[in-house]
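Q: Please design a sequence for this.
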């Protein structure tokens, strides 16, 4: 590690901390129904949307109706996107004459973008038309992000309200998240990206003749508009198969910083929104501190591993000061590439600027751990906050057991129902990662996708199913995902990783909202200080370690130990 790399990491963290109260405060006002700067401009649009859809903004929903509305909107999204993928060959805005997407790949892609996973078993510029990219993928980038924000806001209201039966209105929350948060930032951000050289057009692909005299097709299209929501909404799906490593998606150091800041901006901001809406901003800062501890630890471990040259190459005389440049863009280097990898997997955004399959084993383990812990280290927009609050519920329950009294959080008693639902939601990840992933280690159809042997091959399987179940979407490469078996199984993992967590979260919200607030007493465990942050981080690491350490020991840890002896996979 060098001073320049540490400075870049420090600068990034400082920008995120500075933006947190600004964005978080804005969202608190929006979802509390207060007027904001854009209300005069967008208020008529909002009311028009409600009239068009027959929604009464003053009519709130019980958690069951809120969940039903969320599931209905997302089911409709899957069906519409699947139909668009299957029919794109006969639809307009298809200058490259892309054919219809195969049924299994269309299913996988539709589920992927609706669940905010954005796993791509295809090359975007060689598979999808402009219409599919814009009306299909980009639209779902907004809807899936707004869904996550809405669920998080519903859970915040549950803790903020005193003995309420409702959580708000899902349609209203999604509309406000889209109109007042996602769209304005994306419009401004996309214009900046265009200024920096990111294409935004509907022209046909350009044919060029290289210096060697060969023919080259240069893909382009409506890239900037998709790039901004791709990162702001922690979606991650690239317009090009090289994702954010492609110079059209990420042409300059400024665009790279914009992408990274956008990935964390809303997730970090929601912690402040939480604190503001429950009436104690210290609670939000405590949650962000726990996220920050896990994030910084991951960055330092990964950067420390990547700053070392592969021992096999070092034995051949390669300068150790170069670090591990395999699979990286020279223009980004080791420090920024490592930071980007940790940011995207901490925030459930599958964007990449370097190939994770080429990371040193210990560095490659950090993205894996980030996903295995769930969407909690900032996480997907909304999903990071409600994922972390599941562990908060578990932590205060353990604290209550230690002091011998009924656990409370923000004046709400945490009882058996909430604990059962939280544990049920937390267990979804090991079911998808270890359960479905295990099938790919034994079934011929699953093993056919693995291109490496030994522990690295196991890491490829673990990464694919961690990415799908945690709704991340990044890939470890070296894994043939576009098969009937993997498209189906990974699609199933994405569905359970999204909705089998959201439904218990909303059930917890319904139960907590109905509880009366209990005044704090001398025996109340404070949940805004360093002691609570340490307990929360400890509970997360213990639960994650007990669940996934054996699998990690057989994968990246074993590979790291064998690397010292010169064994490569």
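A: Design:
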């Amino acid at each position: 590690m060098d001073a320049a790399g540490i400075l870049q990491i420090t600068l990034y963290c400082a920008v995120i901390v500075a933006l947190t109260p600004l964005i978080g405060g804005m969202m608190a006002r929006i979802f509390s129904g207060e007027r904001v700067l854009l209300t005069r401009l967008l208020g008529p649009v909002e009311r028009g949307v409600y009239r068009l859809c027959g929604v009464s903004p003053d009519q709130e929903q019980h958690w069951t109706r809120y969940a039903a509305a969320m599931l209905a909107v997302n089911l409709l999204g899957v069906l519409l996107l699947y139909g668009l993928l299957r029919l794109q060959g006969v639809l307009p805005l298809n200058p490259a004459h892309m054919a219809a997407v195969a049924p299994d790949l269309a299913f996988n892609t539709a589920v992927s973008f609706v669940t905010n996973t954005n796993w791509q078993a295809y090359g975007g510029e060689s598979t999808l038309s402009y219409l599919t990219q814009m009306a299909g993928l980009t639209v779902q980038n907004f809807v899936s992000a707004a869904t996550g924000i809405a669920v998080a806001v519903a859970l915040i209201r549950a803790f903020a309200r005193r003995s309420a039966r409702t959580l708000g209105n899902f349609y209203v929350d999604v509309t406000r998240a889209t109109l007042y948060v996602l769209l304005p930032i994306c419009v401004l951000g996309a214009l900046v990206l265009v200024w920096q050289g990111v294409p935004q057009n509907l022209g046909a692909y350009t044919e060029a003749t290289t210096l060697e005299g060969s023919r080259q097709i240069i893909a382009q299209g409506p890239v900037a508009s998709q790039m901004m929501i791709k990162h702001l909404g922690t979606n991650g799906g690239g317009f090009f198969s090289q994702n954010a490593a492609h110079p059209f998606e990420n042409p300059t150091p400024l665009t790279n910083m914009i992408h990274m800041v956008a990935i964390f901006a809303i997730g970090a901001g929601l912690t402040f929104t939480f604190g503001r809406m429950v009436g104690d901003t210290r609670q939000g800062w405590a949650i962000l501190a726990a996220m920050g501890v896990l994030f910084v630890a991951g960055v330092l471990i990964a950067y420390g591993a990547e700053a070392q040259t592969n021992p096999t190459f070092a034995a051949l005389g390669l300068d150790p000061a170069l670090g591990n440049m395999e699979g990286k863009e020279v223009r980004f280097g080791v420090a920024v590439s490592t930071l980007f990898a940790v940011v995207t997997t901490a925030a459930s955004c599958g964007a990449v600027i370097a190939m994770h399959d080429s990371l040193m084993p210990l560095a490659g383990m950090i993205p894996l751990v980030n996903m295995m812990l769930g969407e909690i280290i900032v996480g997907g927009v909304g999903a990071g906050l409600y994922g972390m609050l599941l562990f908060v519920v578990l932590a205060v329950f353990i604290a209550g057991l230690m002091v011998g009294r009924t656990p409370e959080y923000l004046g709400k008693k945490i009882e058996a129902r909430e604990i059962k639902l939280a544990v049920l939601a937390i267990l979804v990840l090991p079911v998808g990662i270890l359960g479905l992933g295990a099938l790919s280690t034994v079934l011929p159809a699953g093993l056919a996708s693995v291109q490496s042997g030994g522990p690295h091959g196991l890491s490829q399987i673990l990464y694919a199913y961690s990415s799908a179940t945690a709704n991340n979407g990044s890939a470890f490469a070296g894994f043939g995902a576009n098969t009937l078996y993997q498209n189906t199984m990974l699609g199933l993992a994405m569905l359970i990783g999204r909705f089998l967590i959201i439904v218990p979260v909303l059930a917890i919200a319904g139960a907590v909202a109905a509880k009366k607030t209990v005044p704090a007493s001398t025996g109340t465990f404070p949940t805004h200080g360093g002691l609570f942050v340490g307990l929360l981080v400890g509970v997360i690491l213990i639960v994650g370690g007990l669940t996934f350490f054996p699998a990690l020991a057989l994968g990246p840890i074993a590979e790291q130990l064998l690397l010292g002896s010169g064994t490569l996979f």
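Q: Thanks. Anything notable?
A: The two ends are 26 Å apart (CA to CA). The mean pLDDT is 93.
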